[in-house]
Batch of 3 targets.
Target 1
Amino acid sequence: MSDKTNPGHFFEDFRLGQRLVHATPRTVTEADVGLYIALTGSRFPLHCSDTFAGACGLEAAPLDDLLVFHIAFGKSVPDVSLNAVANLGYADGRFGAPVYPGDTLTTVSEVIGLKPSSGGATGVVWVRSHCVNQVDEPVVSWVRWVLVEKRDPDSLAPESVVPELPEAVPFAELQVPAGFEGAGYDCLLAGSPHLWEDYAVGERIDHRDAMTLEEAEHQLATRLYQNTARVHFDQLAAAGNRFGRRIVYGGHVISLARALSFNGLANACRIVAINGGRHVGPTFAGHTISAWSEVLDKGALPGRDDLGALRLRTVATKDRPCADFPDRAADGKPDPAVVLDLDYTVLMPRRG
Amino acid sequence: MSDKTNPGHFFEDFRLGQRLVHATPRTVTEADVGLYIALTGSRFPLHCSDTFAGACGLEAAPLDDLLVFHIAFGKSVPDVSLNAVANLGYADGRFGAPVYPGDTLTTVSEVIGLKPSSGGATGVVWVRSHCVNQVDEPVVSWVRWVLVEKRDPDSLAPESVVPELPEAVPFAELQVPAGFEGAGYDCLLAGSPHLWEDYAVGERIDHRDAMTLEEAEHQLATRLYQNTARVHFDQLAAAGNRFGRRIVYGGHVISLARALSFNGLANACRIVAINGGRHVGPTFAGHTISAWSEVLDKGALPGRDDLGALRLRTVATKDRPCADFPDRAADGKPDPAVVLDLDYTVLMPRRG
Amino acid sequence: MSDKTNPGHFFEDFRLGQRLVHATPRTVTEADVGLYIALTGSRFPLHCSDTFAGACGLEAAPLDDLLVFHIAFGKSVPDVSLNAVANLGYADGRFGAPVYPGDTLTTVSEVIGLKPSSGGATGVVWVRSHCVNQVDEPVVSWVRWVLVEKRDPDSLAPESVVPELPEAVPFAELQVPAGFEGAGYDCLLAGSPHLWEDYAVGERIDHRDAMTLEEAEHQLATRLYQNTARVHFDQLAAAGNRFGRRIVYGGHVISLARALSFNGLANACRIVAINGGRHVGPTFAGHTISAWSEVLDKGALPGRDDLGALRLRTVATKDRPCADFPDRAADGKPDPAVVLDLDYTVLMPRRG
């Protein structure tokens, strides 16, 4: 094998405190915005209309928050998870400055936890990743942990260090984009009269619509994010795995669930935190994705009566409508149709 | 079911004169232009080249007219046709100001006709939709009528009001974009020497080329237009319908037929009216679309010797080449391969 | 058949010295850049980041060189190869001015060779094509030759004229984009420490990753380039050909191979010449493309110590990993899995 090819990092290659500067810096453009609409059908007006965003005090329509996350995340794949057996979870995701077409995004990660598996052939790696724009403003940061193969199962294992992670980003630490004013938000154009006051903790919403996955679509999305995990692209190799299929990038399912959630959560205008998330099961081309959401918590924001925060849980299923909110069974095991369980926080305009 | 989810309007929900403001305002961009080329293969130079458009007196290449129509139309779907059993027809479509990247489009519809079906379970709704740009200039308006389900088959039916619709937009009422001059139109770069004078009423043209539909492609197109009709996206639900398949958005077939018509109608540089149109049959992924056109009428434009109008009929088929112009049989029934019968009017440069 | 439809040129229609001005001039945009990333997964930083390109002395990120080539090439198809039986080869491809979003590309071809086939029913046509931007700067030129059908097998054949073509574009004639400075190139952000000095003639690199072809993806790519060859789009017609399948545009395979080559050749930052290339075998949706490369030659550039040239050969295969560098057998015949054999020259930063 050539010494010039990147085989990805194995568990032994990670060191606590290690800093990984990820390739490739990326100038995001209106093309990302348009492709994201074409790939997900998202209709949140703040991300679709410069005039709508302008009325809310922003300079233009910022990129969809999840689009930013996927591009930021994709950069970390070649250095963090090329040899990952599994993506175990996300936590403490925080969105900062809005991202506009023309901004250039770069991601750096730091290793914050390591834990050899008991079997010896793998280990868990925790990284905190930071994505910044061209003037070094943080646009999104998050923690994720992955189960990574060892190069040599007999190599010496490092001491276990497991980071403490918050259950959720506190409402008081959420960042409202500079200049953003809920007063300018037009519910009529947004397509829904339901504002922050109208949602109750514990309320559940079936998003009704559904979307069938296609190979070409998830591949286009995942390549757009320059995510290089081969399980998404290489059917020849996939034919030999336990599924026999290319696995859809979990982030694509997150984006579909968020786009579907427009029907019921149209005014959830900005994602400000990803508190946690699990890809409960794999999805493949041909699966039809549905989604429902639950209001986990709601809170005011310090000093603001124009916007409030909702902590949401959005559950996505495959080949299973969500009218009856498929969830965990009595034994705590998720319904076999559930593929995603995402805990995140959004901003929503208040009546003021 | 949550009260926050939009179930779509049923027949009882429509009132004569009712005004529906549609979500989501949309800033169109170069991404829409590029995706439209990728999805249709359209080659009309006015929509592909800023220098070509500039030579014709326009500030830049305007968006393809059908791209504008589909985006404008898509907005009306959640409020008008989410519970439609069938899209029955279009009429009186009029194109106004050209749309450029950066413009923001909003659509409003007015209910102009209602007719309960004899069976009682459905009714026909006519709406006139108006799409405007960010400075409130009309960019396209049209009438369409749809067969919509009743929520309650026993509900009281309104009095029938059926609007009168013109057979075609009169040539004298067609709008030429401000500043547009046929004199600057370069036939050599456009790829065809055939101008307005060269087309005869009754002339038929087989467009020769053909395009096979893919699920990923029609879904990408339909989501780009933020058209939410679930029949296009949800295979799980479609498996239970009479076709067992996702139905391709009829507008995608219109766009493919128009793109194919470049071979024979390259200088039909701008659509100025959609006089009428019927989706004669459904299409599915795997169908190969071919098209032929007939010149229905031609006319001069008041005060202009640089441009003329052609009223065209373009017929699209599935899995059937068009060298012999498949059409209605002697009994008036369309050839079973015909899927689209579109009556529209274009501008074409004159020799002057 | 209508006289308004372009049936494509047959062998008899070509004359030595004939000049073909191709439709449609095309303003390239950020949409082309974004779609190209989504279609290929390319990660070369010079084409992805305005800040990275700016640090190297360019005004912005130029379009990927192959994207420019495909758009330029697509224009020539309706006039050169609509009736081609086979694309026989490329030679003497030279890249000139970088192309930026907003530039408008036009292609003109000249017939430089003709050779009737011995059988009589076909002939080989050589054309040199030139693509220029809106201020008439050459952006790319190349020679290709195609086997074209005769309209009438008994028509008189012209005298054979076979052009002399260079084996490779000499290093001294390669064009470095104005202002481009290797000194500003950041290897850390590019994701690879390997520079021009580190590559040895004869070195071979397996690019490891692989990409499975989908109908929707190759069709989107080929339509984006406005390449109208019906073999890529028309399954109804393809069902009757010897493969029974739509054939993937060879240029899409070139782009995938180049994108895959990032893993091992990340700093091959600009293609400056296409010396030769053969589509050794057809590819279809479902095939998984892998690639490996060999350094054929390396050379300094006159007066520059910041950049060097590498002449590369990239071989792509279908359904066959490249860890053992599949190539020609002892009898000179290519491995049956090989689909592409491309000889090209890149710029790469030097240590200086």
Target 2
Amino acid sequence: MIKAGIIGGAGYTGIELVRLLLMHPEVEISVVTSRRYKGKLISDVNPHLEPFIELEYEDVDTKEIADRTDIVFLAVPHGSAMDYVPQLRARGARVIDLSADYRLKKDEYERIYKRQHKDNDKETRKSVYGLTELHPEVADADLIANPGCYPTGAILAVAPLVKGNEGGGRVKQVIFDSKSGISGAGAEPSAKSHFPNLAENIVPYEVTAHRHVAEMRMELSVKVSFTPHVIPSIRGILTTAHVFIEESGAQTKPLQGLRGRGAEPHSDEIEETYKRFYEGKRFIRLRKGLPSLSSVRGTNFCDIGFKREEKSDRIVVISAIDNLVKGGSGQAIQNMNLMFGMDEREGLWFPGLVP
Amino acid sequence: MIKAGIIGGAGYTGIELVRLLLMHPEVEISVVTSRRYKGKLISDVNPHLEPFIELEYEDVDTKEIADRTDIVFLAVPHGSAMDYVPQLRARGARVIDLSADYRLKKDEYERIYKRQHKDNDKETRKSVYGLTELHPEVADADLIANPGCYPTGAILAVAPLVKGNEGGGRVKQVIFDSKSGISGAGAEPSAKSHFPNLAENIVPYEVTAHRHVAEMRMELSVKVSFTPHVIPSIRGILTTAHVFIEESGAQTKPLQGLRGRGAEPHSDEIEETYKRFYEGKRFIRLRKGLPSLSSVRGTNFCDIGFKREEKSDRIVVISAIDNLVKGGSGQAIQNMNLMFGMDEREGLWFPGLVP
Amino acid sequence: MIKAGIIGGAGYTGIELVRLLLMHPEVEISVVTSRRYKGKLISDVNPHLEPFIELEYEDVDTKEIADRTDIVFLAVPHGSAMDYVPQLRARGARVIDLSADYRLKKDEYERIYKRQHKDNDKETRKSVYGLTELHPEVADADLIANPGCYPTGAILAVAPLVKGNEGGGRVKQVIFDSKSGISGAGAEPSAKSHFPNLAENIVPYEVTAHRHVAEMRMELSVKVSFTPHVIPSIRGILTTAHVFIEESGAQTKPLQGLRGRGAEPHSDEIEETYKRFYEGKRFIRLRKGLPSLSSVRGTNFCDIGFKREEKSDRIVVISAIDNLVKGGSGQAIQNMNLMFGMDEREGLWFPGLVP
Amino acid sequence: MIKAGIIGGAGYTGIELVRLLLMHPEVEISVVTSRRYKGKLISDVNPHLEPFIELEYEDVDTKEIADRTDIVFLAVPHGSAMDYVPQLRARGARVIDLSADYRLKKDEYERIYKRQHKDNDKETRKSVYGLTELHPEVADADLIANPGCYPTGAILAVAPLVKGNEGGGRVKQVIFDSKSGISGAGAEPSAKSHFPNLAENIVPYEVTAHRHVAEMRMELSVKVSFTPHVIPSIRGILTTAHVFIEESGAQTKPLQGLRGRGAEPHSDEIEETYKRFYEGKRFIRLRKGLPSLSSVRGTNFCDIGFKREEKSDRIVVISAIDNLVKGGSGQAIQNMNLMFGMDEREGLWFPGLVP
């Protein structure tokens, strides 16, 4: 049994890790920390976990945690993870960090998150960006930077179009317009999550400057715009990707599978590109129609569908994920599975809660 | 034009008063206070009120407010109203208090609200319980204690059965099981109003000991139980009243209109009792079927329907109100209308927002 | 592996059976029928089930189904099950019927459901009411009448008070006021389930005459009233049970554990009664506070909490279930587990989807 | 008093016309038709309208309706309006058509709506596109084609950038990503509006081929893409317009007010452009922040806000409307007001239902 520790186990990401790991046949949760609730039974704070876990929340002691675990999940706020990682790594712990601290290059991180990065040890800083479907090297990593929820759905939606070719480059620009359930804003009540403010509403925010765009640009290397909204839903992110491709006459080598007749790539060729790119990726489900949130509720799947606009250079790609599972804790466990040589599906292979 | 002041104009009750008074043809809002937002434009804090009001929030100055207004609405927390009322009354202001401070007898208030009542002036304390349909004396009042949201819907649901007879007393017991939209909990974010906690849920609370039961008992004088819940809805209170009547063989004089054949009152007689009791009450709508929240959304109506259980001593009466209108600010304006000799409908006579 | 068949596999109950059985380690789904969708891939009709099931919907052939399965679940409308059961039983099939057809005595069924019961074979008609916690004899049954969703939550809420004593009878009367998610109304769109009609609303229906009251009376043998409502939620039933107990001076032998000081049973004694009654029942969670729907979402748990009203003969008991799991398909599987000598938790032992 | 008739008064658009016209001081509703409900009291079918209207639904008789009214609103399905308009116009009736039948040029209509246009009378066909803020000529029209709900929010969002200059043309391309409440899909229950399908979800549809795009192109004359979604909300359309402007070096004459320093137009200049363009338009509210649906709930306002992306050619403009009011029946009344020489605000000047 793999012994897992969770630092920051009272927020939505942490508690979802607990919920999912409890169903994992190869994992035993050995420690969960929370400064706020230390000494309290986890199942008293989270009654849905009774009687599955008998542990109490503990205070954080990185040394002890490294000794008592085979893998440590960090579910702490951005800026805190970099305090724990060097200590944990120094004691040989393998770490999956669900914060943003190890996702970007140091200078990019500091520019975007407007704080200094305190971890200067090049060795321990060596992280793999844990978007499993694009980075098989997670299997060999000791430190994984688990992707942000929005980037997960956005990047997976268009990666085959952007990267699934030899020459690269027929995609000219992508506009990601994302709609997220409010659980992404965390367990702490706020004006944004106040029921009368969100019900019967949809709220755009940080429409030109959300920090997650940096991850999308890092992974996709094309012109990317990103605009998020919160919808009156608990879970889920639906990303509508408006993908613009080079128009006819372009000199660039066309996407393999996007050759098309004339300038327009045909739907069956696009489908082929997606199938080839995601072959063997068990958590990607290519849909004939357009996906919506319900099919992925509570699961680690990323559902993808697309529609080619007629007489146009636009392809609309829709992806749907559960922000707390594939967009967070589930993907972290998927990474853990690969790090420990297991099938990526272990503990995560179940259908969504429909209806 | 009647000049109206609102003390506590930033909570849901206060801001709903502003919204409704802005549509009242005979009223001009002259002052709105808020300690938190003083100096800010009301329409900046509440963008839905732009461009209808150009006032800024002011700090509270009871002397000045008494001078600048014909009527003062108090939309402050329980326990604060009793600070303002004596000062306002001393300066001759007429007051409609939407808090609980003047609803109950002094000793009952102190027992239920667990605080001392500071207003000892018998004269100024003389308030009328502003459940307009039952208390025509509001027309002559200088101080009105506007009813609680739950009591409004509950009392109106069963008053005809309890009070609509000469001898009184065929109703033995009433169990009120109420379901409220979350706006009743106020504008301040809390765990209770946190979207992920309330959506896809219904939450019972204070199931045996909610303070509002005191108003119901005061007005109905029968055995009353009250159990509230919050539902994933912004507005509205649906009250399911389980009314038990004396069974056959009882010596009590039967309800006029509830004579029945044998011991069981018949539905048409019950209907007759309701019609007679609420004759001329324009905001009571007796429904053939069972009411629900949507028809009263945004309105001052109280919709009532009932169903007589066969071979049983139970009548189920359902009432539906908008908690912020008939259950609060609308009823306050209805009271004001009568205090100033106007038709009770003035400024409140419009249909609900359906769908 | 147990081979399971589902007749009526396209409604919410049927498809939830598929979802849950797919996660059951000892079960293999061998046949799922649907007249409407025969020949179509189950996962095409229900995209959340991809890629977990590769079967197509089949037409119903009871003979063949009996041969191909060890257990048959009937998830067909009331009135249809009685067509299948005799044929299936005649071929030796063990059957769990999720309809109402075998829950009540013949004459009671015919009175309540207003149709003739066609199954007159006394032998095959011998069913066990599958409220597992109260009927351990399900383990030996060949035909189980799976309880209705409302009765499951209602009966479990009060059974310890009603039945958990020797002499019986201190509970005088129970009023069940239930609030259900709309999935209980089925997968077929209707005015009731039309989003603009249900959102921001709560709708009472059949407030004195819902058919499920017959099951409650059958199991509890006390004076029972039942009033259902639908709330703007997909899943879940919260039942508020207003329980009235005999007042002081009553001659009846007091409930064991409800002796109390004077006439009033004390909360710790009530708690003791519940604990004793449900000892070893793994899907009953007794809560310190009041339960709500979120903790049971997607699970087979029935959460129960209560509050004793001071100076009163009323106890408010709240139960929360997922109507499609404990109130339907989950309970059916729990019954199957016991019929096949397994732990009742097999395939059903996971925490709820929170948030 | 203006006598108004409504043909098709049982759908959401029709019934919203009734609701709004009942509050209009200068209008009397003289006839409302519905084939389905003819002979029934309007307030029996729509209990929220009791006791405001005493009319019964009538069958359609265009001759009689023309005689009994000063203005006729057509709230019938696309394809039906063209049956009524010629008859009504022949009898001299002034008509506001809320269907799509008279919005587009004949050939464009036939191409998009895939049906023949039966009205060939050039005279009677002469309609004005009733997007009031852009078409002051509605004041002189006898036939108004009331805009679609999506086009209303979309066109108003970007018109100042596209048209608010002399030379025209700095806007290169617009991607409209719209999110609509489900009431836009009508009063008839469907799989799309089935509560369990929509709650906790967001559903993209016709992502490249929604018919409303034709109106947007007609009015804006720039490259337009349009992708709609339905959200779990009753009312409202939030449109996120991703506007791309010509990059530096372009030879086109810059937008007046978009001159900018260097190539990038500055936010205050954009704001200036909007203010100038919508000066005197009372139902346009330019917001400092980003609008959301709640402020416009139940109103005829179109709230607009925008954000300029740094170092980019993208401006994100957000518009919010109530799809049934500004996106339908309210805008129709606004048009009527102007046709009859009244202030455009008559009967429509009230704040939104918040919270």
Target 3
Amino acid sequence: MITISAYNWVPDFAKGFVRDLRVRWALEEAGLDYTVKLIDQDEKLTPAYRAWQPFCQVPAYRDDEVTLFESGAILLHVAQRSEALLPADPAERARAVAWVFAALNSIEIYVEPLAVIDLFHAGEDWAKQRCPQVEQAVRKRLADLAAALGDRPYLEGRFTVGDLMMATVLRILQDTDLVTSDPVLGPYLARCVGRPPFQKALAAQLTSLQAAPASAAAR
Amino acid sequence: MITISAYNWVPDFAKGFVRDLRVRWALEEAGLDYTVKLIDQDEKLTPAYRAWQPFCQVPAYRDDEVTLFESGAILLHVAQRSEALLPADPAERARAVAWVFAALNSIEIYVEPLAVIDLFHAGEDWAKQRCPQVEQAVRKRLADLAAALGDRPYLEGRFTVGDLMMATVLRILQDTDLVTSDPVLGPYLARCVGRPPFQKALAAQLTSLQAAPASAAAR
């Protein structure tokens, strides 16, 4: 049986964006059942949870074979079980894996600083000075990505785990027009998140986040 | 035959830190021969190179089976060919892969903004305001990593591709005392980079970086 960890509460801005969404989506695409171990903001700091997830975050993952952390690693593990996420051909599989890494390390590594400014530091003096440079770096990476995608529906033609990861990273920018205004990336993101398995995963995360007692939100 | 791309010139601060080092190190650990396609700062922007590496960076990789980009994806592909980098046991393999992702997405994503400040923006007003927060975030992640490592020589006991990637990320901090002063991570990094395959890879990168004509450095 597959078990993943997820929070029972997060601040409003994070709802629908916590990284267990990536794993839930992959499991839905693969048609694999799973159970959720809900944790709160205290439990994530316990030795028992740290042994499962060394950085005290979600998601962590467990099945009959492995105990894992890092959404990227969990996605690859799940993807290896299903041709819905990874093609059978070894060369095509490797390309799909490349896009998983590209999403995390060539796109998210630029997107994250912009999200941090927008969410936590908007209006601060340093952020006003720095933001244009950060946004310019994001624009450059998105232009590279759009050029690579071209007129294909997905990054390697058919949907893979690489598109799944890329879409979750592009969604971080959804309160800006950086993706939505792009004639290539806007429809691409809409195509990815329009998939029924994404919608099911999103609904499941939002349900989990309603599990906390009211006292949790008051802290 | 395996071919990787690498630069023939970079600024001094980047020498010994360009990401083809990760791939060279993995190939040395695996005992696999390779040739290097040297490119300059103009060639990386050509359509031909972009088709190989969509973000116009190094390394890109090609063998008889696959054409790949992203150092993480290349490392996993190489590692699958050698038990020197990945254990045979599926659960142990998955754990090693988790550390590759942790290096890139739980550590480097915090380390990179600090390196960007130190290398490109030291002394700027915004950087002076922001730097303490960035450094605090790095310290927290390094503490989590040190706790996970504990008294083991490597992250999962024996050396894997996860340690290889982690060491290349920790090296980014080597001009600070954040890693070297840590009683767990300092010796860990020294242990990783003391491996002969790392030293051989480092020497090979430095040799490639002397290949440019003098005019390249003057631009």
